[in-house]
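User: Before I run my own analysis I want an independent prediction to cross-check against. Here's the chain; please return only the structure tokens and, at the end, one sentence I can use as a sanity check.
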Amino acid sequence: MSSLKYVVPFKELELSTVIKARDASVQALKDAIKSRGKNPDAYVVRDILPKTDLGLANEEWKITYTTAYSWQTVISQTMPEDKFIVLYGVQLNSPVPKTLAIKFYKDVNPVEVIEVENLFTYQEPIGFFSPLVWSESETIRVDFYGNATGDDYIVLRGFVAELKRKTIA
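Assistant: Structure tokens:
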């Protein structure tokens, strides 16, 4: 899964491959920390939280489309010092999903666009892609493209690395 430019459905992967994808995401965080001249052992890695880490309204993976068939910026914030984020997957929790595609930016540059509509046909609409990492002081922006107005429950799978004792010990 080292250079996926598309979403691979969970059902098309062996469990060992999913575990390797998660491990590769954690390693990508550690590499980002090292690249800033910092010690990864000083950091704790935890699941990403929608409000705490990405600025959504609540600790719930819910977005609201105000316009159909157009890109809508849902996440846009600069990573604070000593905080690193990696995203590696997506999960569609709505009974009738609205999200068709997701575009990721690092600062002002688009780094990836993934189409998630292909996940609609699976009983477990979960997909994985190559890890995308944002380091301290970089701006993460995520745009979503939906086919209707209203709420959609879409989870971005990922991890956060932050200094120990910041959120958890």
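Sanity check: The two ends are 31 Å apart (CA to CA).
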